[in-house]
Model the fold of this input.
Amino acid sequence: MSEQVKSQQQNPRKILVCGNPDLNYIDGSSIWAQTIALVFAEIPGAQVDFVAKSTPKRFELYSELQNHSSINIIDGTQPEYWQGSKPQRLTMPMMGDLTIKLHKENQYDHIIIRGFDIATHLIRDLNVLARCWMYLTDIPQKVEELGSDQKLIMSTIASHCAALLCQTQGFAELWEKATPKLDSSKVFIYSPVIPDFEDNLITIEQRSQIAVYAGKFKGDWNTLEMSTSWPKVSRDVPAANLLMIGDKVHQEPTIPDYEQKMRQALEHTEGLQWLGALPRQEVQNHLKKAKVGLSWRADSMNDTVEYSTKILEYGGAGCAAILNRNSLHESLLGADYPLYANSEEEFKEKLKIALTDNAKTQIAADKLITLAKAHTFSQRVQDIGDWLTKVESKNSTRASYKKTKVLVAGHDLKFFTLLQNKLEKTGLFEFKIDQWQGHNKHSEKQSRKLLEWADVIFCEWCLGNIKWYSHNKHAHHRLVARFHAQENRANFMNEVKWESIDHISFVSNHTRDEAKENFPELPLEKTSIIHNLLDEDKFKPLKKTGEAAYTLGIVGVTPKSKRLDRAIDLLEALLQHDERFILRVKGKNPLDYPWLHRRPDEISYYQEIFERINSSELLRYKVIFDPPGDDVNEWFRMVGYILSPSDFESFHMAVGEGFLTGARPIIWSWKGASDIWGNHWVIKTLNDAKRDIMEGHRSETPASLLMDKMSSQKVSAQWQKVIQKS
Done:
């Protein structure tokens, strides 16, 4: 026995395969899952655990896995994994959880993952992610269609996984565009795989006039159109037969009664034989006798970077195929492939040619055979063996990942929550909260306990929290903070231990300028400007209500420096010209704040405001107070103009959120407004605001101008650097 074989027996490669496809349903994705398990099982010394998404009940695909000596099937629904309950079918987050559990028990060398939501779930454990080979096709296939969260998640996956398996070069290019820092050595093209096939396939001329479709029955797959077109083809080619193989009939919400119509066509179309689900080898046996396989799909799929395994299976069986003409197929088979079809009429025409013109059909078959030879099972086993060597060589010195432990300290974390969510999605951070009860009130015992856990302290607001932590942190701690505005009206920054502070970021330039005046010892070299982030995934343009064009909106009107009186002045001026205008005020009633009752000037201000509204015939029914809640995006459907009439702001999030929803900002010229939002929306007088609304002077400004500096992805990346800098 060789030393290599002994080593493989003593230290086998432990592989876990966990993907979204369910082998109880036969389609291209479930065949993919079966095949990749079989491929890895052929690697010398490999032992493969395969997670079944539901209890195995059908054995067209499972039998081959069960009969392989190097594969163990794990029924993922077993109660031992779910605290005694037995789910019927695992969701993708459940599969992510199970992957983490199984790895803790078995310490896999490599983990094969299919499914974006499974991969996303694994970000919480970077040691698991570091062993993962990702195959993700359930993502938008154009980079401009990816949301900021998706890009952030993809970037984290790409940075920390062992390998990225891309079905086509198009998918590889998508990853490169979405994650510019991608290590290209991680990328491998894992195109579809077909069984090995013999060279002595019978020619098209020797075959019967048989057409075959094998796969799922689905709207975009044009399977209903294939079936309903068959009677016309059959009349012109009377000796021909159509075989339909598969049993997965989808429901299509956009096509009324699709499932019923599809089954009716399968069961009652003359000359069509529905064989139901068959083992893969039986499918191949039927294809080896057929002239043509069917893979014509809806035009909506022409931009795909994913191609069907069926194309290769048809080639491996020696038959031709009817395919859409698109850039992917032309890159694989050439522009001169003779059986492209992009409409129902073309499909019927090319199907008749495929069944009757042996010369053209043989040309098509030969092109498919050549393509298929590069995708055989034996070739893929060889490919995987080479890729394993590269991955294991690269990762042999990789250290275990340790998340940075971030302790967030502050009394008001409403602005931090979104940033925390974005940073958590990178998989690099673990957070705990030291919740302060006020600017300078906290449990010192709790703070000291949390301090022992932390790597980094993040002070949200620079108040009593940064004073305390600057005097109590240990040498190994990194202390960073975010400065908003009210800190300039307090004295805590004069009492900090500056040498203990590593970095303070300000939300705007003018706020930092004021801080330097108020706190002369502030070291500017330890500061930066990072704007508040805008949640472009939450705040999106929605169709406005009819009244939105005449609706002013303001979010939060406490304290009096928010200048609700200016908003009412503007409303009053507009109502002199058009009685349709209204003002909607979103947020808590000022009189519901306990602290406000300790300030007589504030109480007097709001009492006068309410008296003004209630006593005016013009205003009484034109000011609407909407309660606070997490429905601001929906609220903006009713708002055409978002107001920022404040005396001063550090940033004013509501302006950006309103802008993202399609509301036009009207910003009074508080200090720093033009620097943050640009001159475009800033007004100096009431008459300027009135004129801009009445005459529509201010043209549209693209949201991309804001997103260049305030997108959630950009801002979270800036904070990531601040927190991690050693």
Q: What stands out?
A: Confidence is low (pLDDT under 50) at residues 1-10.
